[in-house]
Prior knowledge:
Elements: H1 2-9, H2 14-30, E1 66-67, E2 77-82, E3 86-88, E4 93-101, E5 107-114, E6 120-121, E7 127-130, E8 134-143, E9 151-161, E10 166-177, E11 182-186, E12 192-194, E13 200-208, E14 214-218, E15 226-229, E16 234-241, E17 251-264, E18 267-283, E19 286-287, E20 293-308, E21 313-326, E22 332-343, E23 350-362, E24 366-374, E25 389-398, E26 401-410, E27 420-431, E28 436-447, E29 452-463, E30 467-478, E31 488-497, E32 501-510, E33 520-532, E34 535-547, E35 553-569, E36 572-587, E37 590-608, E38 611-626, E39 629-644, E40 651-662, E41 666-677, E42 682-693, E43 701-712, E44 715-726, E45 731-748, E46 754-761, E47 772-775, E48 778-781, E49 787-793, E50 797-802, E51 811-813, E52 818-822, E53 827-836, E54 838-847, E55 862-868, E56 875-879, E57 886-891, E58 894-902, E59 911-912, E60 916-921, E61 926-934, E62 940-943, E63 946-949
Parallel strand pairs: 3-10, 12-18, 19-49, 46-53, 54-61
Antiparallel strand pairs: 1-10, 2-4, 4-8, 5-7, 5-9, 6-8, 9-10, 11-13, 13-16, 14-15, 14-17, 17-18, 20-21, 20-45, 21-22, 22-23, 23-24, 24-25, 25-26, 26-27, 27-28, 28-29, 29-30, 30-31, 31-32, 32-33, 33-34, 34-35, 35-36, 36-37, 37-38, 38-39, 39-40, 40-41, 41-42, 42-43, 43-44, 44-45, 46-49, 47-48, ...
Amino acid sequence: MTLLNSFNNKRLSKGPFLLVLVFMLNLFSTNGAASIESNSEYFVSIKSEIDNKNNSKKKKKKKSNKSNKSNNASAVSSNLIFAPNSIKAGSSGSCLIHLNNPTDDTLHFVIFPDMPFGWKLVNNNDVTIVLPNSKKTVALMLVPSNLSKVGLQRISFDFVDAENDIIIEEEVMIDIKENRRITLREVLGNRNLRKGGNGLPLKYRVYNAGNVPEIYWVKTEKKKTVYTIYPGDTIYHDVKVQLPARTNLKNYYDVFEIQILKEVDAEFVEEKSQRLTTSITLLSSGVSKPVSRFSIPLTTSTGLAILNNSANTNYSFTESINLAVPNKKQTQLTKVNLQLFSNNGGTSNQTRLDGNVVFIKKNRKSTLTATAGAGSSRGYFFFRIPNGMFSSGLELSGKDYSASGNISQKLPQFAAQDSIQGLRQLFLSRKLSERFNFSTHHFLADYTNDGSDFTNVSSLNYVTKKVRIENSIITHKEASEVFRPSQLALNNKIQVRTKNNSIRITSFLSGENFNRGSENMRFIEYDLSKTINNFSFRLSQELFNQSPLFTQVSNIARDQLNLSSNYNRDKFKGNVSMNRFTLANTIGLKENKTMNESYKGDLSYLLGKGSQVSMNIMTSNQETSINNSIDAVVSSRLIGLQYSSPMLNRNSITIGANSLNTNQQEIINTQGIIKRKINRKSTISLEANYRYNTNNPALDILQTKAEFSYRFNRTSVKLGTNISRLGNGLINANGLVNLTKTFAIARRDTLNFKQLDGIILDDSGNPISNVVMTINNHLIITDDQGEFYVHDIVENKVIIEIEKSTLPFGVNTYEGNSIEVLLLKEKNKIRIKTYKSAEIVGSSNIERTGLFRGALPIYANYYAVLTSLEDAEERHYTQLDDSGNFKLSGIDPGKWNLSVTCAAKSNGGWLLKQNNFELEIKSGNIIKQELLFSDKAPNLKIQKGLYVPNN
């Protein structure tokens, strides 16, 4: 082994040494003194050489191959095919070497490289096999380290086949290029700073990871000092951050910046700068009691618009009020949302009041919600819930359930707009398991002159991360009827989603008496989408068929097909879509059919700094037929261009133009918008639009719009005007005013806050500062006296979560890192005591009697196990190293038992005189424990001068 190491380190001359090595290897294997594994009995080395850096042909430097056999082994040769002229430090390069075996033996070569310090041969452990009378090309991958010296470097390879006594040598000369690399790092890891404290120390490390010396100076240092750092060297710079206690900052960013210099004409000039930013969280040592009042936000918005033309003047007035009233515990919330609308646009003045009131009460496991006001219930495509209904309802929800009831009644002013006058609903849902949930929805609808209908929708859902399956059974009948199977409907939904794909299929099928005025309803829909890199594709279709009962309309069919694709890459976005909609119905003896097809393309390109240019193209064709005879065809084409820029330097510009061509007319529309930010509070915008009709100038429209907005404190004002002039000379003008104001209604506090004051001490009674903890959702840090306080606690208990990484190394609290504190009084105090963990350092000695002479115990067979006498489940264990040493750290104070056991079947005849120790460990102790091994094993037998230990 010593000879092999010497060979690998190239400490001896190669020629004679390699022959001696081969001879000794053969002798060693012949005598049977040791066996050599298949991968280690062959040794190969290649040395490749490039004679000159500028020699592009890379001629091989020939060497005499050596052999001790007479079977033409000396004819084995190598040829350098390729080697790189240069390699950048830290990169890789490959050498190609051609091996020629003209002999009748199979050769097994192992590589022995001779490389500069820090270099690595990736495939050094490979065995190269060259078959008889064949050739083989070997690729050797070299990786010089980042610190490799600049200039020409010599690398040699020896291919050695020990069995056939063959040695081939090749050399290469490779030029290492300059590698400049400086890295910055903050090493202490402190990221919490107490406001007004003594400051936070930071230590920045500057490391030269290149292969040339660098010169720099630190910009953030008050004194300008120039530093020289050599390859592989490190320089540390200490920084202290300190901020006043009154600062309002929550985070502070410390910037460490260096300026790297280079020499030009015997002078050093600045080349480039390099910086590292460290984010620091600013904390205080406590939270004071809040001011004994809080505010309720009330927002009002008033709008007035006036429209004037040559005929008359119209107005519209809107007023909205939003109010949210919580309690201090945030367990109750009352929300009020009201809107008042008034206008004279019709034959008479119209006024409408809309809105709702919501009350929410929460406890630990459920939430109760009460609502009253405008209805917002969700309907289905087969059952529509009309607008203009006054609703009131209750909902109780928890983690796995929800139950709600709702009563709705149509308001008198909307009574003539829909036949449904009243509606009662009940909704229940329950989570059955992690993937299954059940829901049921009941409707009882009251009609004006036709009794009541009862509808039930019951669904069972299966939901995973990628799959959702919903199966619903629906019944619909008149309340006075007995249920019949023909009043049943089935609705099924299947949806599968992956990262780049989506599939959704929906179907609906009803019986002939399911719905009022309908024999049956059939509906099917599918939606497919696929994404590949920057391209996405989507296909969807909806098919609907209904056969009404009344004789005027005997059939309704609807077919809608959508196809779209998107392409997004860098600054370019493109979209192409196709839509086809077909509606057919039969009225009496007439079969009416309307089909609309449209094709659309959108392209946009980002020009930089937020500017964008876009183009829109669309063509559509609508065809109407009666009894399969075309009645009318309307086609149109649209093309538009637009340019927009963001609000840079307070300005934002948008300009555009489009052309619309239909069967009847051709229209060209131009538009321009400019917005200017006057200051932080006010903005003005101007917009102009001109619509030109080439067929009828009387329909031309010129429209201008101006708007001004101003914000201050909690008030927002918006003023605007809009003037339109038609081609026939008619002028329309309108103006608008909108005022939004948020008030803060003060309310006295009815809560009694509790206070908690605490201190953290070490095992000697000294305070521990800069310990970070979370109390009552506050992140705080102990001051220089180890104290902290929280005075805004409402609950009767709090949990103190201590950030263990901020405690001194090896220090723990007796109560753990999560401490629950009961607050039985208004003012409470807590003292948190800590201790320092102990460690056991073990060593081994030998007591010899001469039996084993120079032999040593196999220490790695022994394990040290430390078990607490107070808690048998608390253990520490480790393995002895090759020298018999061990170390156990992080041990809590108390009584422990140390046991050392042998894991092997045989201890080689060695006796551990004592393997059990009872220890009493105190805070911060470092206990040294000695193990004594003796060769006086009781199971030792002596046979004819040989010492044979029993297993």
